[in-house]
Design goal:
Pfam families: MMR_HSR1 (PF01926). This protein is an alpha/beta fold. It is built from 17 helices and nine strands. It binds guanosine-5'-triphosphate.
Length: 582
């Protein structure tokens, strides 16, 4: 009789999980025959695809980030809204791992790190097919499914799967976007200022402007993570391409005067944010001004201005040592819509219905849409997370009686963007990456992370004077430094180390920022104080709570223009690594 092999609890758990997934895959497959809501591709394009674990209905689509909590009645599918991505083959993953272990890394010159919108061939995105009130709900849904399937077939006929970046394959999530676009008067396209061209789909802009005849405001969000000069440079870049576009700079977490100035900050644990922190968001006034310009008096926005003034006063009261009331438990009047397909919105709705301005926050996952809603409200009304794809269904909230905010789930638009960049931009959940090493290599070729993290080469003791680094070495050295060990053999846990490095990058603690094409050349350009609020010097209030500091920063920026200077690297510790001689 063969000897029984030991079977750990972890393995058992995994086995049960796989069985469950297999069953679910079967159910999905059955459902798909009647109603392909999952948005998967029905026939595998490549017969050689990895099908070993039998996880999903279509072996080409990887489903990640399951629904966090159960909602709805008996027929509710908790995984209906999870992210669906194209799945890679095992051979492909093994090949990339080998590259990470062998390829010697070389720093990319900053001149090669310039990005334009053209650099990214953003493809068209799935749109809602035309419908009218004579059609039944089932007919509308069926038409949407057919159109979405055709869209996927078209795109996979045009491009090889490896050419395409990860993008959303779940029709339900696209339906949420369609609904939000229909119900909103102005769309706020939220982008992370570190990767704005990555988060700006020109196809979406032109659809909103030309087809829907609505306005769009571009929000350069998370400005606390980039040097002010870079924020200004991006603002000017977008203005030069889209002169009519309103652009607003925003941060939900302005940098405090003392905060994160220490280069060792990268090693520190993330601090838990106080509930009152939301009131410190910077950019509300700029957003209000942009809305006023577009609305042109058709909606009364005075309440919004009053709210901003009130929040700024409360914030400065807290600065002066006032009480920090915890509003977390207050009743929150958010409206959830967990089935966008149930809501057949008007295809061409009237603007500013009943004197209410609806602002729809749309964009890629993890760019800070929910945080922006919280920042505008001044307290937590929607849940946020550093895991992309956290918001699953759109939610609305009345900021004032005449301004309604709508938070849409994040969507990855199809593009030909390099997948490493997508991961670093926080678009793809780090915990779900099957092969993180090459992305660490991509990062290390743009930021000298070995130096920043003071890593010791794993082969240093083997006598090599100046050992070359490959991505695997970096992960191994980081595992050694952090003490990440595998459970069984107590070897360095390289996979965990790679994930940890990628998290540091997505959180902005290892800060990589894209640069616009003219960045570094426009020395003479004057920076207006209104261009960007300097988060490092002005930590509280969004309405001029500290105007003298604001003016001082404006002067400082004017002197610096758009040139990355030593001054900037001092005020912004991450900049040194981002804009230095790389
Ligand atoms: N530094 C910094 N981090 C931010 C800012 N806004 C959001 N974040 C962080 O970015 C992560 C994502 O924020 P969310 O507000 O959940 O992003 P989202 O766009 O709603 O994400 P999805 O639910 O995936 O669509 C969280 O870890 C936030 O703490 C900001 O202004 N500055």
């Amino acid at each position: 009789m063969p000897r029984k092999r030991p079977f750990s609890a972890k393995q058992k758990k995994k086995q049960l999980q796989v069985n469950r997934e297999r069953k679910r895959g079967l159910t999905d497959e059955l459902n798909l025959g009647q109603n392909s809501r999952s948005g998967g591709i029905e026939k595998p394009l490549d017969e050689n695809m990895d099908t070993s674990d039998g996880e999903s209905l279509s072996h080409m689509v990887r489903k990640v980030n399951q629904q966090p909590r159960p909602y709805g009645g008996r027929n509710y599918d908790p995984n209906r809204y999870r992210l669906h991505f194209f799945r890679e083959t095992r051979e492909e993953l093994e090949h990339r791992k080998k590259i990470a272990q062998e390829r010697i890394l070389q720093l990319v010159q900053s001149l090669k790190w310039k990005w334009t919108l053209i650099t990214y061939t953003m493809l068209d995105f799935p749109k809602r097919p035309v419908w009218d009130y004579h059609m039944s709900k089932e007919q509308v849904l069926e038409r949407e499914e057919k159109s979405f399937q055709e869209y996927l077939n078209r795109i996979y006929c045009q491009y090889e799967p490896t050419q395409l970046s990860y993008f959303e394959h779940n029709l339900e999530t696209w339906r949420q976007l369609w609904r939000v676009m229909e119900m909103s008067d102005i769309l706020l396209l939220i982008t992370d200022v570190r990767y704005p061209v990555l988060h700006f789909p020109p196809a979406l802009y032109s659809f909103i402007r030309t087809d829907m005849k609505k306005s769009l405001i571009l929000v350069l969000n998370k400005i606390d993570l980039a040097p002010p000069a870079l924020v200004v440079a991006w603002k000017h870049y977008f203005h030069s391409i889209f002169p009519e576009l309103q652009i607003v700079c925003f941060t939900s977490f302005p940098r405090s005067k003392s905060g994160d100035q220490n280069p060792e900050g990268v090693f520190r644990k993330r601090q838990k944010r106080r509930p009152s922190h939301w009131a410190a968001a910077v950019g509300s006034t700029q957003l209000l001004k942009a809305c006023e310009t577009i609305v042109a008096g058709r909606v009364n926005l005075t309440c919004w201005q009053e709210k901003i003034d009130k929040d700024a006063a409360a914030s400065s009261h807290q600065d002066a040592g006032g009480s920090d009331e915890d509003n977390e438990d207050e009743t929150i009047s958010m409206e959830h819509f967990d089935d966008a397909s149930e809501e057949l919105g008007m295809p061409c709705q009237e603007l500013y219905k009943e004197g209410v301005l609806t602002l729809g926050c749309v964009g890629f996952p993890n760019v800070g849409k929910s945080s922006l809603v919280n920042g505008l409200v001044g307290r937590k009304v929607v849940s946020t997370s550093r895991t992309p794809g956290h918001t699953k269904y759109f939610q609305t909230y009345f900021l004032t009686p005449s301004v309604r905010l709508c938070d849409c789930p994040g969507l990855i638009f199809p593009s030909l963007v390099n997948r490493h960049l997508q991961i670093l931009a926080g678009i793809y959940p780090v915990s779900q990456i099957q092969e993180p090493y090459t992305t660490v290599g991509y990062l290390a070729e743009r930021i000298p992370i070995q130096k920043i993290l003071k890593l010791k080469h794993p082969k240093e003791n083997e006598g090599s004077a100046d050992p070359h680094w490959c991505a695997w070495d970096i992960c191994e050295a980081w595992a050694e430094k952090r003490g990440y060990k595998t459970a069984k053999a107590a070897r360095n846990d390289v996979y965990r180390a790679a994930n940890s490095l990628l998290r540091l990058a997505t959180d902005g603690r290892l800060c990589l920022c894209m640069q616009p094409p003219e960045y570094g050349k426009c020395k003479g350009r004057k920076t207006e104080a209104s261009d960007v609020t300097a988060p490092s010097l002005w930590s509280r209030g969004s309405t001029g709570a500290n105007p003298s500091q604001h003016r001082a920063q404006g002067r400082k920026q004017s002197r610096a223009g758009c040139q990355p200077t030593a001054g900037h690297t001092q005020t912004h510790p991450h900049t040194k690594h981002t804009l230095g001689p790389i």
